[in-house]
Structure formats: C-alpha cells, structure tokens
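Deliverable D2.4 — example input (structure tokens):
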C-alpha cells in the first residue's frame, strides 16, 4: 500500500526525475527537479496555486516514483527520454517526430561521394544542412553530380578499380569513371572541391562555367547538349535566389515563435544557416491547456533539440523561458560549442520573430478549421447516432458481416470504430467452422458467439490483474453493435448476447430495395435518419468497411484454395514443394510451361518430383499424341 505522507518524507534533496502514476499504474506526468524533496511536495500543498490542468493531474495521482541524477542537466536529459517513451497524458507533447536531411561529403575517401543522409554522425565526413525538405537535398546532390561528374556508386576505390564495367552514368556523360581509372585521383578531387564550393553557396563560378559550355555547344551545333547546360544553369540560379532571402552575418540560428489556443499550440521555426534563411517548418503540440506561451516554448525546445542532430550557435525565442541557463548548458554539451538562447527586442531579428509568430498563428487557425471538420465527421457523427438511438457514452462500435459464394469458404469479419474512426488493429477475421451452405444467420451466430466467448474468457483471466488501456480487441467490449441488416440480423445478435449474459445495445442498418441505407432498426422499430447528415455518412463508412474487410478475406481464401486444388493433386508435391514452386515461378502458367530441367531449379525439387509436375500438366497433350499414333 502506498502511504503518501511517508513517501513524501523519504524524498531526497537531490536533483532527479519524478513519475506520477494513476490507479491503473499508468504514468500520467514526468517532471524534473533540482530538489526532488521540494518539488514533489509542492504538488500536495493545498495552499499552492496551480493551473487547472495540473490540478486535474494531481486529482488522478495514486502514487509516484523518482530517479536520482548527479546533476540537473542529467535530470533534463532523462526527463526528455521518459516523456518520449511514456507519452504521459498531462505533459505538453510535441506531436511531430520529424528528422531533417543532410548531405554527407565523404572527404576522407580517395574518390569522395555526396550522400543523402537523415542523420549527422561524428565521423570524418563533412555535412551540409540540415535541409528543410528531402527534395531540396536530393536536388542539390543531383546538380553537383551532373555538373562536376561526382560518382554515385558505392565501390571502394581504388581497390575495386577495373573489376566491374562502368555504369550508365559514364555512358551518358555524367561520370568520368574513376572505377576504370579514366580520371586521376587529383583531377577527381579538384572537381569534388568545386562541388563542395557549390554546396557552400558559391554559385557565380558555376554559372560562368555552364554559360561558357552552353555557348560552345551551341556554336558546334550540339543543341541537345546546349539545352542540358541551359537547364542546369537555370537550376543553379533558382537555388541562388532562394539562398539570398536574407542575411544575418553568416551565423547559424533557429528562430522560434509560438501561437496557442485551448488544447492545441503551433510552434514555427525559421532555419538560418550561414546567414541565409534556408527554410521553415511548423510543429504541433497538444495538452497545452492552461500553459503559458513561455511554458509551451520551453517544453518544445527541450523535446525538439533532444531529437534533432543539428544544434545552431543561437536559438532565438519569442519569450523568456524559466530554464534558459540550464538548457543553454545542455545544448552546449550536445553541440560541443557555445549555444545561446536569446529573445530579440528590436531590429531585423525582432521583425523576423513577428513573421514567425504570424505564420504559427495562421497554421493554428487553418488547422483549427481542419480539426473542427474532422471532429464533426467522427466524434460529432457518433454523437448524432447516439441521439437517434437515445443512448449516451458511445465511443466504441463493432460491426460484422458474412461473405461466401453459395456457402463456399464462408467467412466473417469484425470491424471496430472508436470515436468515429476505424481502429484497424482491432479488426478480426473468422473462418466459419460449424455451418455448411449459405446460412448467414447461423454463420453470424457462430461469429458473435466465438467473439464474445473469447472476450469473456480473457476477462476472467484478467480478473486478478490491474486493468489498463492496452486490453486486447476481444477483451474490450463495444458500447454499440451495428449489424448490417434489419430485424433478423439484430435478433441474431441479441439472442447470442442474452445467452452469454451480456447487455450491449444492438441496432441494424436497414437498406431499401436499391440496397441503400434508409434507417436504423433499434428496440423493435425502424428509426428514420437524415441522409445528408454526418451520422448517416459514418454509418455508410462502417457498412463499406465491414463489407470490404469480409470480401478481401474471402477472396484471399478462394485464391489459396485455387492454388491448392491444382498443385496438391500432383503426386509427390506437398506443402513445402508447392510453396517452393510458387515462389520460384510466381504463377501456375509459368509452372505449366516449364521443362523438367527448369522445374528442378526450384528449391526442394528433385528429378522425380519435377517429372511428376511436368507429366501432370502435359498428360492430356501426351494422351492426344498417343491417340494419333498408328
């Protein structure tokens, strides 16, 4: 038994991280402290004023645990790691998990390469970036490779020189084939250094070279080659224009602003590299209700820089944050050089911060509209269905369908919608075992009985354990069952539930003569519904989804049965050889056309088995030939 007062007395006056648990043992909040003793005790002092969000969190605390660290910086790192691992309900969470691309120049190689990379390692390579999009990084690599003929292969040179024929790039004039020794190491590295200067932003020399080559090709009436040089030159000019948007004295900076509303916030980041604004990006945070803008900004900075490989010399913030000195120390350690957190007050930097804030506010407004539309489409539609049925608290709906062709390979499907959205991890398939022929009612009885008996059994096994949110799809029972049909299907489901002692409301989605949904059958009567409503559209999505899931499963079983019915009739061909043949030849047609020698190439096949397969497919032809003999 957790004794709160006793545990509070045991708290050490040392730095560390504390984890708050609820009654289900779920971690609902993670925080760091200079002194665990002082910080954790504050949560349980009635005189202390806290935000509504923290007050609600405190009301759910059942017990806590803590981890001692050697310093506050270590506590900060551990806090970030635990938040990312457990995603506690009451922490402000960064929803985006983005990584930014780099260009890796393998300058240590005899014949260096330019490689697209999603991480920046501490190796002997030189890195350019981060770039704000994969396309930008890849275009830069392609441009440098085409202009300076940088190799794209991963051969180890000069060790592999002459071992393999030159690739296509050599034949189309985009590589000088160092793999064949057609260019010296010195000449290749000279070209590579020019490519490096291009990535560093020196475009003038490149444009002059391309202009000269284009003019020369044109004079020689090599117009296709001249057009290629023209296109390359235009690409370089476009990059040059983008890089000259603004200048900040050659520094690397991130400029960060925030806009918040209710439980959502958007943070806008402008990336300045070597004095040039190379791009921007925005990030969503949730669980910010009651948090001030500086608190949101502090949570973002800690989570964002815990995950990004590049840390600039300066981080400019819209607001002062409480742990600025501590975060500066942590970022300095990560970067291996001084990092400063600044709040611009005037001049061009302040104007750019205002621009970042306007962009964040715009994204928040636009996304707010999108979120509202999505809410109407999902949770709003669920509420509408509840109103029609006179029910409350419906969040999980299950729907079932049967699929067969004249009773052959009958299957059942179960789909799950939670809060108006499909939860595909909880979908389940059933192969009908006890019903022969096309009897949908009997098949549905089997499916529902198996589903809920399984759930009851799992629940009994969990009786002695603590329940949590990660219950299996069978253990969690629906708040509502929606049958694809009317009175008959509803009564089948109600009878199964009654026999199992379960009380779950069941309704039917009734169709008209044209197979279109016209109403809901509930409590032995048909309820009219508005066909232009979100609730109706959600019902249609549920019906379409349960049909699709059942039909796809039935189709897959039919396909397997068709393969089995042919190959398994061949003497000496069992399951292992059947799989080997299909894996090797990929189709029955190719197996039918193969010779004995070709059939032997498949795994597990010997002369006798190959001959058996060949004879099986050519028996009819052989009989016809024998019948024509005199």
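Example output (designed residues):
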């Amino acid at each position: 038994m957790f004794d709160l007062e006793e545990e509070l007395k045991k708290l050490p006056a040392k730095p560390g991280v504390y984890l708050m648990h609820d009654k289900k043992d779920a971690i609902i909040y993670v925080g760091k402290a200079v002194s665990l003793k002082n910080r954790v005790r504050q949560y349980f002092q009635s005189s202390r004023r806290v935000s509504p969000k923290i007050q609600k969190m405190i009301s759910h605390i059942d017990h806590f645990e803590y981890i001692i660290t050697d310093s506050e910086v270590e506590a900060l790192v551990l806090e970030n790691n635990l938040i990312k691992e457990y995603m506690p309900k009451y922490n402000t969470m960064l929803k985006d998990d983005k990584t930014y691309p780099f260009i890796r120049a393998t300058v240590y190689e005899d014949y260096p390469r330019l490689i697209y990379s999603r991480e920046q390692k501490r190796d002997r390579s030189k890195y350019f970036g981060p770039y704000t999009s994969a396309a930008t990084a890849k275009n830069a690599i392609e441009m440098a490779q085409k202009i300076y003929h940088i190799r794209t292969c991963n051969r180890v040179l000069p060790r592999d020189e002459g071992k393999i024929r030159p690739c296509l790039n050599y034949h189309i004039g985009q590589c000088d084939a160092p793999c064949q020794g057609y260019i010296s190491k010195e000449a290749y590295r000279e070209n590579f250094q020019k490519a490096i200067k291009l990535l560093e932003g020196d475009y003038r020399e490149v444009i002059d070279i391309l202009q000269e080559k284009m003019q020369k090709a044109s004079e020689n009436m090599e117009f296709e080659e001249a057009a290629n040089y023209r296109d390359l030159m235009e690409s370089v000019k476009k990059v040059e224009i983008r890089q000259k948007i603004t200048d900040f004295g050659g520094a690397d900076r991130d400029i960060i602003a925030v806009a918040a509303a209710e439980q959502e916030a958007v943070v806008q980041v402008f990336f300045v590299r070597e004095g040039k604004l190379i791009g921007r990006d925005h990030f969503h945070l949730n669980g910010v209700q009651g948090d001030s803008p500086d608190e949101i900004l502090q949570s973002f900075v800690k989570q964002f820089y815990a995950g990004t490989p590049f840390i600039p010399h300066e981080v400019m913030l819209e607001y002062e944050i409480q742990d600025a000195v501590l975060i500066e120390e942590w970022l300095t350690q990560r970067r291996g050089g001084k990092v400063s957190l600044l709040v611009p007050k005037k001049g061009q930097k302040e104007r750019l911060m205002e621009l970042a804030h306007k962009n964040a506010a715009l994204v928040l407004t636009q996304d707010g509209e999108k979120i509202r539309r999505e809410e109407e489409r999902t949770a709003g539609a669920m509420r509408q269905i509840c109103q029609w049925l006179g029910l409350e608290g419906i969040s999980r709906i299950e729907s079932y369908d049967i699929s067969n062709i004249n009773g052959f390979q009958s299957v059942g499907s179960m789909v799950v919608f939670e809060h108006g959205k499909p939860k595909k991890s909880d979908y389940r398939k059933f192969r009908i075992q006890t019903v022969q022929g096309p009897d949908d009612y009997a098949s549905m009885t089997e499916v529902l009985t198996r589903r809920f008996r399984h759930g009851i059994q799992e629940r009994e096994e969990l009786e002695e354990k603590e329940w949590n949110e990660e219950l299996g799809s069978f253990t969690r029972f629906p708040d509502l069952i929606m049958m694809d049909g009317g009175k008959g299907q509803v009564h089948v489901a109600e009878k199964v539930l009654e026999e199992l002692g379960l009380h779950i409301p069941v309704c039917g989605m009734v169709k008209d003569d044209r197979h279109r949904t016209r109403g809901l059958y509930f409590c032995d009567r048909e309820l009219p519904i508005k066909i232009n409503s979100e609730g109706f559209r959600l019902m249609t999505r549920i019906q379409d989804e349960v049909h699709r899931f059942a039909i796809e499963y039935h189709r897959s079983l039919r396909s397997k049965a068709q393969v089995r019915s042919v190959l398994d009739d061949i003497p000496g061909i069992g399951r292992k050889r059947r799989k080997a043949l299909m894996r090797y030849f990929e189709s029955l047609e190719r197996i039918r056309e193969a010779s004995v020698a070709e059939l032997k190439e498949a795994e597990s096949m010997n002369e006798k088995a190959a001959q058996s397969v060949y004879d099986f497919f050519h028996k009819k032809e052989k009989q016809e030939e024998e019948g024509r003999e005199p």
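The longest strand covers residues 276-286.
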